[in-house]
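Quick one, T. Sequence first:
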Amino acid sequence: MAPTLRIALALLVGAGAFACAQARDRAGFDLANLEEPTGVGGDAGQTPGFGSDDDAGAPDSGDASFQTCAATAVEAARERLPVDIIWIVDNSASMQPAVAEVQAGLNAFASLIAGQGIDYKVVMLSKRGTVPTANRYPICIPPPLGGADCGNSATFFHASMDVKSTQPLEQFLGTLGQTPGYTASDDRGSEPWAQELRPEATKAIVVVTDDNSRFTATDFETFPGGKNPANSTTLPPGVLDPSRGDQFKGYVFHGIYGWGSATVPSTRCTYPNNTQPQAAGHVYTDLVNKTGGVRAKICDGSVAWGPFFASVAQAVVTTTRVRCDLAIPPADGGIVDPETVNVRVSDGTNAPVVVPRVASAAACGSAAGWYYDDPTAPTKVLLCSASCEDAQSKGGDTPPKIEVLFGCQSVVK
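Structure tokens:
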């Protein structure tokens, strides 16, 4: 398993004798042994004042005295959650060049992600094998990602299914749920693979095809379950149906397919020999745009694959979700009073905001907030769902962060 990637702990101590004295006077809170770091922003050898221009921004607490009493802000260490990357590759005869590129490049793709210290697993949904049959092109992923003889490994699982050109999304859902028509004995089916998905893992889905999906992007996410609109098979609920809980929450969709225009979804790309793919794949464009994924043109052939693998790997790294239960960082040498702790969240785009403490997870509702794991003897800060979403990377240049502030009376909802 790849080592856990952690964001470094940052300690900012406010200047001014009054601020420190006021914090010391609070019951159970002692800053006497805090060491002030030097050269953190501003001029070398100086420590920026809390809430100054050198800091992440003044807390939006509605209390003018907040940045006076909150003498210390500690950026909480955050763990990246694992990531499951699900590839679904069309096995049609026209896909032979693309199948070969996936087979040749998937090991390097996995290495890019492993190099970032992320705990990853690749799930392959495509026909497994080395010999084409009846104009169907199978895939065999070699070691070290794959196992011997097209087998599996600790970081790779291949669910063998013959992926039809217009049915990748249907087969994704059907085989995930093992519904009638999608079991191992069915033409469109495969062995079970849902057990390979880890409950806490971020999900990335990558489609490789030269056709369009007859199943819509909306249905892929919100289909209620039941008879497949296109045939007599049965499909389970879509990936974002409430019955799935958070299994695919925050998933990102990527693809290499037949699109040809950044502005006209129906425009197909053109191969060097002046032919075109079966379709532009506007359904996949809908999913890529909706989830903030990356894409490449299948018509560009071998020159497209290296950059595509790299772009998907980078997207996986930058959009990997982080845990929203955080150990309370200790004030160096100090005793923390639970009633003088606040939490500030920055989404990396907007100004940092101090969010209120609520009594429990049930009290969160849909609003921003945080709560303790144990109100009487707290060891962790847990973010409400809305604040957890604000604490996730949006893929921008500035990463979001969560800070625990010591010294002010807690802002309570």
